[in-house]
Amino acid sequence: MSVENETAKRTVTMDKVVNLCKRRGLVFPASDIYGGLGSTWDYGPAGAELKRNVKEAWWRDMVQSRNDVIGLDSAILQHPRTWEASGHLQNFTDPLVDCKSCKQRFRADQVDSIRCPECGGELTEARQFNLMFKTFIGPVEDTASAIYLRPETAQGIFSNFANVIDTQRVKLPFGIAQTGKSFRNEITPGNFIFRTREFEQMEMEFFVRPSPDEELKWFEYWVDARFQWYLKYGINPGHLRLRPHAQDELSHYSRGTTDIEYLYPFGWGELEGIARRGSFDLDQHAQYSGKDLSYFDEESKSRFRPWVIEPAAGVDRAMLAFLLDAYHEDVVEGEERIVLRLDPRLAPIKVAVFPLLRKGGQPEKAHNVREMLQRYFPVAYDQAGSIGRRYRRMDEIGTPCGITIDHQTMEDDTVTLRDRDSTEQVRLPIAGLLTNLIERIGWHR
Ligand code: ATP
Predict the structure, then answer these.
(1) Beta-carbon neighbour count of residue 132 at 10 Å?
(2) Phi first, then psi: what are they for 190, rounded to 5°?
(3) pLDDT by residue (tens digit) across 153-187?
């Protein structure tokens, strides 16, 4: 099937996903009881699980299953010199224009004319606006105590470079990875969780020998590996593309960047960026801190600062892409349903357990099954309403398996297992349930 056909078939819209997310406890508008706080979102019970699973998938593939990458978890608050050295104080800015009539603010690179896109009023000249959130450390609010919330997790990796090589047995090429919150005072946040001011990143700095050949080899390797990662967890290849940055849009630290873009309902947008940072960051931190941030190479008996390839992904954007791609509407036994065909590894709840009737020992039996399974993965229990409606509720958050306890279970200890996507049911002994479920939803797949 061609990419165009695949794309044309899509029925998903942002509104449908936003509504489903609210209705099923995936994502809520934040500070809702106070009328909301522009473009901030809270992850509800199902959303918290999904988000954890996205990070878990990344960590497993980027750290746990590799011999050349190790993990880190650095602080959000870093010494202010960090941001001088990294260039963020100087360069992490967006051009801002104000409308002289309605006072709205826009990113100058996102408005096409010299007129306000909202009211047609005259716009001011563009000025540079720093995107870092500023606050104070300690009780005194003066310039000496000014501090910033990190706009990227990467700098915590560079500032720990010496700690890592002094304490771990690492040899080039190797990577240091971390996930965590970052903050950017975006001028125009929006599109649900695509662009927010507080978000989570999954970043890895991969250190290589300082040579253009090594750099290119690993850059190509990581662009491909990261592209494949989204396919592995179910993104339709027709909804993904690579976009190399033009020279004039490169970040201040970058020698070359390729974005992995996803086809959101509002158009192509960045999902992840893979950048060649060279030795820019280590050079800067060495200079600003006066510390030796070089690596001693046993092979050549020489010291140098390695170059860096950085795949930098957004948890929230990845989650949005997985949700959009999983969203389907179909008809089951004459009834319309919404189903999230999420990869089982990402699904918030793996199994739902339903007693068919609220009597005859079925609820007690169902609780036992639930207890047995919930030692291994998140399980839901639901005894309210018709069995059809209970299936639908679970389909809507992408639960891959439904287990029903019925009168036959009470006689022979077998249950029915329903598959979310095909809706087919098979009868299984309870004794074989765990192995069967692990086969269907386990991380090893
Ligand atoms: P954009 O061009 O969309 O502003 P960027 O190029 O500034 O993004 P990077 O600095 O490369 O983004 O950050 C790496 C990743 O972090 C992005 O690919 C994205 O997934 C995520 N990210 C960046 N800014 C935001 C944001 N405001 N909200 C949500 N995720 C973000």
Answers:
(1) 18
(2) 155, -170
(3) 999 999 999 999 999 999 999 999 999 999 999 99
Round to whole Å and give the CA distance between 326 and 397.
Answer: 10
Report the nearest-CA residue for atom 22 of ligand 1. Answer: 314
Amino acid at 148: Y
CB-ligand 1 contact for 314 (6 Å cutoff): yes
Q: How far apart are CA 100 and CA 105, in angstroms?
A: 10
Q: Which amino acid is at 389?
A: R
- Amino acid at residue number 20: L
Spatial distance between the Cα atoms of 317 and 89, rounded to a whole number of angstroms? 25
pLDDT at 443: 86
> Ligand 1, from 86, 149, 201: best to mutate by most atoms within 8 Å of Cβ?
201
Q: Using a 6 Å cutoff on CB, does residue 41 contact ligand 1?
A: no
Nearest to 131 by CA among 177, 165, 83, 163: 83
| Number of the ligand 1 atom closest to the C-alpha atom of 196 | 28
Rounded to an integer, the average pLDDT of 30-46 is: 95
Cβ of residue 313 lying under 6 Å from some atom of ligand 1: yes
Looking at ligand 1, which residue's alpha carbon is closest to its atom 6?
Answer: 273
What is the whole-number distance in angstroms between the Cα of residue 335 and the centre of ligand 1?
A: 40
Q: pLDDT tens-digit profile of 257-308?
A: 999 999 999 999 999 999 999 999 999 999 999 999 999 999 999 999 999 9
pTM score, whole prediction: 0.94
Residue 206 beta carbon below 6 angstroms from any ligand 1 atom: no
Q: Is 201 in the pocket of ligand 1 (CB under 6 A)?
A: yes
- Average pLDDT over the chain, rounded to whole? 94
Which residue is closest in CA terms to ligand 1's atom 24?
195
User: Number of helices and strands (H, E) in the chain?
Assistant: 14, 23
Q: Give the list of residues 6+ apart from residue 303 with CB closer than 8 angstroms, or none.
A: 294, 295, 296, 297
Please check the confidence at residue 355 and state whether its pLDDT lies above 90: yes
Does 272 sit in the ligand 1 pocket, CB within 6 Å? yes
pLDDT digits (tens, 9 = 90+) for 301-347: 999 999 999 999 999 999 999 999 999 999 988 889 999 999 999 99
- Cβ 310 under 6 angstroms from ligand 1: no
* 64/50 Cα distance (integer angstroms): 19
Under DSSP, the state recorded for 12 is -
